[in-house]
């Protein structure tokens, strides 16, 4: 007798492969070795599979079996009661499988094993080779198995052969509606409860620089299709590697999924008596508690996570070095300036030693500042090559107790890896605390790398996506790395629109920009002093390009000095962690998010955090930016960051930066939609006093700003298309409480440009007088004629007029201002001095008075055409001559 079977808890791949095997062994008996997944059981109940003569185990005479055909399995422990049968010498064993070979695998006299996405694919390939045509029902059942085990042909384990098999089955009548109906099932209430528990317990562990997620749950009753919950959790949390452990009744079900070749989950779960392939595996454990199993999982995981990191992935470049003839004093200055703990010492371009901050400070303590480094440096050190693996790099660092490890290419120093670099990559902040708490409670996590390609495709317009790929391609051609940085990346993760692109190039940013412009429809504007450039496209779109650089400050609040450096150093000079996120654009790493400073954690926690404690001392204008970002994206300044801000303000550092820089920051805050809440925060931090000591943002000021917002919104709804500067309207409101003398002092403190000084020192006083005159007149008279309204407000800029609309104290004044803004401003006479000359009037002061009278007549509706204006002008000339 021939017998076809599969593994216990059979899935659709088992079913499809068994049906296919029946065509190869038409006289064989089909037997399940145990239970099936719920979806398979439902399919069996609703299908016509009775025609295939599935029999029960108790109805099979095992002694009569001479040939055992195994599909989708090759381990005796997974075939239940047929394990002994597989080991009998008189039984011929045929195996059809897609799982990789290991030491415990059964060996057959006939084996068809391929590392493809599904065992059904192996049998479909045989059908194609032997010209076997499946029926439509057989093709549908085989397609069910193929689609389930390849995740609708989307899993990483899917191969070209799987697609070929799917096409073959479709050609022979596979019904995709049936496939969809049975593979897309709604979750039961019990599954929903389990999934919720898995989400809450999910913790992320960094092992050899790779993130692995582990989740657990418990149920007193059996819940079907635990594997489907693993897929849902993986998609919800965007996980590359996931292991779930679910205790049900007296056993624990383990399911593991991996998208990364560095993590072989099949080998991992073999240690728990299960199996599978590199990308999907399962196991059932009976002799451990859930806590014991999770402890063992933490112990075994590191053996199955290979590092994909090499020295050149971690190294910082270019490297700041010291010559061996340099003194301790010079080394101290360099280490302090760049905030390094160690640096290589070179001689004739070769690394001859390492010098650490501890050694330098100890030598300084002994008054040895003039001692050459050759006398105090460490010459017992190790170097590594660019392609040194993480494990070897770790061993080199530990064996020699080095703070940094030089990376060389031949004899040339190309980079250094620091101890902090290594620890951040290996551990990060996401190492589990071991207390089995949910990830949200176990402390903030840090994802070192994350693929954003799908998010880029979903969020960005096609034009921008193509542009990003072109940037990466030019970087590849030049042999430099190109990254997206700053607010663009932050807002991409927040799903907020932002097309303000900033690029950082690890190399010569200007050369990159020029190379890109040579192949594209744009021109370059370069700034060689700072190593930056702007790409300006034909439609006016701009992209900023910068060389990766490091900044150091000679004194607090001074402008920084700039030098070329690595990406990590470039990001470290930035203001807040949420603005340090960067995305690689080179082809090999396109879409990879790099997070050196816990930016993702702070995005998740909605926190504004500086990178180091001297941040506000080095650049006090960051206090304004902290408030601006806090209000713009609805975050909260972190407690430590807030303390540092208050300290910098109390030290008086803000006034040292100069009025121009304060004005630039204030201008951006006043341009924000959340300007009122931002000004409240400025009041709390005592920042308004740097504009003027008498300023206070109180309830009256808030009402004026709200009125200004309504005025601006009203003007926007007129759809005139006339541009205006809303921030300038807000600045007029901010300075409203000040006297003329106070406004003059504020202009001086902010170092306003002449055009703004003229507006505040001349136009603003005139506008205030005009509003007072209008309000006084309107209290005593009915509605004024249009020419009087024009006389009050003519000559004022649009921003000042909108400020007056907000400031007007009564409805009558606002109606007059509204009339002027919407109609009277645009009124003008059609005749000019040439017309008056042709009418016989000699040039002189009467020209102006006549034209003004004609304008008043037009404003008041007394004339409406050019001919009527000429007629009135002639009358005025004639009456004057009499």
In short:
The chain is of the alpha/beta class and 882 residues long. The protein contains 37 helices and 30 strands. Strands 19-28-27-20-21-24-23-22 form an eight-stranded mixed beta sheet. A six-stranded parallel beta sheet has the order 3-2-1-4-5-6. Strands 7-8-9-10-12-11 form a six-stranded mixed beta sheet, sandwiched between helices.
The largest sheet, given as strand count, sense and whether it forms a barrel, is: 8 strands, mixed
Output the structural class: alpha/beta
* Cα end-to-end separation: 134 Å
Number of spatially distinct domains: 6
Number of helical stretches of at least 4 residues? 37
What does this structure look like?
This protein is an alpha/beta fold and 882 residues long. The chain has 6 domains: 2-183, inorganic pyrophosphatase (n-terminal core) (Alpha-Beta Complex), CATH 3.90.1640.10; 189-304, Diaminopimelate Epimerase, Chain A, domain 1; 311-426, CBS-domain (Roll), CATH 3.10.580; 449-593, 2-Layer Sandwich (Beta Polymerase, domain 2); 691-826, Orthogonal Bundle (cca-adding enzyme, domain 2); 833-881, no CATH class. The strands form 7 sheets. Strands 19-28-27-20-21-24-23-22 form an 8-stranded mixed β-sheet. Strands 3-2-1-4-5-6 form a 6-stranded parallel β-sheet. Strand 23 and strand 24 form a beta hairpin. Helix 8 (189-201) crosses helix 9 (226-237), helix 24 (622-633) packs parallel to helix 26 and helix 29 crosses helix 33. The radius of gyration is 38 Å and the shape is globular. The relative contact order is 0.04.
